[in-house]
Design goal:
Elements (H helix, E strand, L loop, with lengths): L1 E6 L5 H7 L4 E6 L14 E6 L4 E14 L3 H11 L10 H7 L5 E18 L10 E4 L6 E2 L3
Parallel strand pairs: 1-3
Antiparallel strand pairs: 1-6, 2-5, 3-4, 4-5, 5-7
């Protein structure tokens, strides 16, 4: 399975992944959402900033999933994985407050990070606000740049 992770451009996360500062992609949710139970070791993630083409890939080295979170658990996850390299959170105490309502957390450890020839994607059928898409093959949603 292939995965598309859409990142918030203002946080400059692609640059942090590319430089090795960010080695863990984290997703925090109030309810279970993709990629929960949909991603496995060895699969490929394609990364793009919102509104831009895909420019980066990484392979999944390991996955950790946490559920039924409470403030103490969130704090422990952030304390252990939030630094650089890791999730690469700039303000750990602010992140703890921001994420305090999350019930689920998935940590995806990245390896083999590489630039890729840029390409656009077609999100039709996945919802305009989708920030993560899981597909059998990225070719199903790939559009060639003109």
């Amino acid at each position: 399975m292939d995965h598309l992770a859409i990142m918030k451009k203002s946080r400059k996360l692609l640059e942090k992944i590319r430089s090795g500062e960010k080695t863990i992609e984290s997703r925090w949710y109030k309810s279970r959402r993709v990629p929960w139970n949909k991603i496995q070791k060895g699969e490929r993630i394609y990364f793009k900033n919102s509104g831009e083409p895909v420019t980066l890939t990484a392979d999944v080295e390991k996955i950790l999933q946490f559920e039924s979170l409470n403030p103490e658990m969130i704090s422990a996850i952030i304390d252990k994985y939030g630094k650089t390299p890791g999730i690469c959170l700039e303000d750990l105490s602010k992140s703890k407050r921001t994420l305090s309502e999350a019930n689920y957390c998935i940590l995806i450890f990245l390896k083999n990070i590489k630039k890729t020839t840029p390409f656009k994607i077609d999100k039709s059928g996945f919802g305009l606000m989708s920030a993560w898409i899981a597909v059998d093959s990225i070719e199903k949603i790939k559009k060639i740049l003109n």
